[in-house]
Amino acid sequence: MSQKKKQHFIDLMRNFDNAMLVTHAANGEMRARPMAIADVTDSGDVFFVTHTESGKVEELLRDERTLITLQGTLKQASLTGRAEVIHDRQAIRKLWNPAWQMWFAGGVEDPNIALIRVKPEEAEYWDMGGKTLVTLAFDGLRALFKGETIEPPKKPEAHAQVSL
Fold first, then answer.
1. CA 40-108-13 angle, 5° bins
2. Which of 18, 50, 64, 74 measures 20 to 30 Å from 31, CA to CA?
3. pLDDT tens digits along 98-149
4. Residue 135 within a domain
C-alpha cells in the first residue's frame, strides 16, 4: 500500500474529534460507544482517555481486537486493530484536555484515568470532499438528466483500503 494512501488516511483521521470504539463483550457480542479522540500519531495509533474501571477496559483486557468507525458529512473512515490500556502518567499528562475534568474529579492526576491506544492494522476511508465532491456532483447531475447511474469514485484520494 502506498505511503501516500497511509498519509491521507492519517490526515483524514485528524479531522475527527470523536469516534465509535467497538469492543467484544464477554458473551462475544460487539459493543460500540462514542469516544473523544485524544490523539492520532504519525504512525496512525489512536488514543482515547477512559476510566480504569469502565466496561470497555475490562473488554479490551479480555480481547484486544477492536474496530473504530468515524463519520462526517463528506468523510468516513474505519480501522481495525489491537488495543492496549496504558497507565503511563507522563503520556496522560501530555494528552490531558481540561474538558475531561468533568469525568475525572482529580484532574490529570486522578488515579482512575487510563489511555486506550489502538494500533491499527487495516483501515478504509471514503473522502468525498474537495475536487471529488465537485466531480461527483457533476457526474450525478449528468446521470440524473440522462436516466443513468454513476459509479463511486475510484481515485485513491476518494477511497482506499490501507494496511498500516
1. 10
2. 74
3. 999 999 999 999 999 999 999 999 999 888 766 655 565 566 667 677 777 7
4. no
Quote the CA–CA distance of 125 and 159 in Å, as a whole number: 5
CATH number for position 115: 2.30.110.10
- pTM (two decimals): 0.85
> Residue 154: which pLDDT band, with cuts at 50, 70 and 90?
low
**C-alpha cell, 25:** 463483550
Domain annotation covers residue 26: yes
- Start-to-end CA distance of the chain, whole Å, equals 9
Look up the domain containing 13 and give its range: 3-128+157-163
* Domains in the chain, number: 1
Specify if 46 maps to a domain. Answer: yes
Cα separation, 92 vs 24, in Å, equals 25
Is 134 within the bounds of a domain?
no
Interval 11-49: pLDDT, tens:
999 999 999 999 999 999 999 999 999 999 999 999 999
Residues 6+ away with beta carbon under 8 Å from 48: 19, 21, 35, 36, 37, 38, 115, 116, 118
- DSSP per residue over 51-62, as a string? ETTSHHHHHHHH
